[in-house]
Amino acid sequence: MTPKQHEIYEQIKNFVISKGQNALHFPSDYPARDRKFIQNLAADLGIRHAIEYHEVNNEKHVYVEFNSDSEDEADSREGVWKKYEEADIVDESQINIEEMEKQKYEERFDKWKKDYYLTKMGLDYDDNEQMYQLVRTYIEGLQWVLHYYYNGVASWGWFFRYHYAPKISGMFDNIRSLFICFHFPLYCADAMPQT
């Protein structure tokens, strides 16, 4: 929670505790993250909230309204108050949202890659030797196909032993360490053109 969001929280808390009769309006210059914070807090508290749009100047602001209060709602709000009171207040300059989003993306992407290799091929993505062999074999397969189309069959016995290809990111991670010399044993001398 930012200091601004803590201030918003205090305003809404005082509004709900005093059982405000009129709507509590927030300025239209609030950034989207603060408007979203207001909406989430209002939803947690079970009070009505809405965004009001002004067509004249294309502004929008959030407001909350207090509904009638039942004992059940009052009891459930105690947990909400506690949750927000215990929330850490982080200086806005310390919040680097883009970096956090990038980190979340990288974590999800790594999990997806690990799941792909484990479920599709039974390989451990963190095992460098297994990934090296997969990438090496795949690149050999690319070479085999190119050789087949330009020169004929390089080897009748060679095959790609995996059912799925590595992801390009997996290849990129491992290709730097590859040094492959392609020598396929020929099982059919007639398959290769004579030079």
Describe the protein's topology.
Layout: H1 3-17, E1 24-25, H2 32-45, E2 48-54, E3 59-65, H3 71-85, H4 97-121, H5 128-151, H6 168-175
Antiparallel strand pairs: 1-3, 2-3
What is the residue-mean pLDDT, rounded to a whole number? 79
Q: What is the top-level CATH class of the largest domain?
A: Alpha Beta
| Counted beta strands | 3
The CATH superfamily label of the largest domain reads R3H-like domain
How much of the sequence lies in strands comes to 5-15%
Q: The CATH topology of the largest domain is what?
A: Ribosomal Protein S8, Chain: A, domain 1
Number of domains: 2
What strand order characterises the main sheet?
Answer: 1-3-2
Determine Rg (CA atoms, Å): 31 Å
Please write the string of helix (H) and strand (E) elements.
HEHEEHHHH
Q: Main beta sheet, described? A: 3 strands, antiparallel
Q: What is the helix tally?
A: 6
Cα(first) to Cα(last) distance is 74 Å
Structural class: mainly alpha
Structural commentary:
The protein is mainly alpha-helical. The protein folds into two domains: 3-94, Ribosomal Protein S8, Chain: A, domain 1 (2-Layer Sandwich), CATH 3.30.1370; 125-191, no CATH class. 52% of the residues lie in helices and 8% in strands. The protein has six helices and three strands; from the N terminus they run H-E-H-E-E-H-H-H-H. It has helices spanning 3-17, 32-45, 71-85, 97-121, 128-151, 168-175, and strands at 24-25, 48-54, 59-65. It has a three-stranded antiparallel β-sheet, with helices on one face. The longest helix has 25 residues, at 97-121. The chain is elongated, with a radius of gyration of 31 Å. The protein starts with a helix and ends in a 20-residue tail after the last helix.
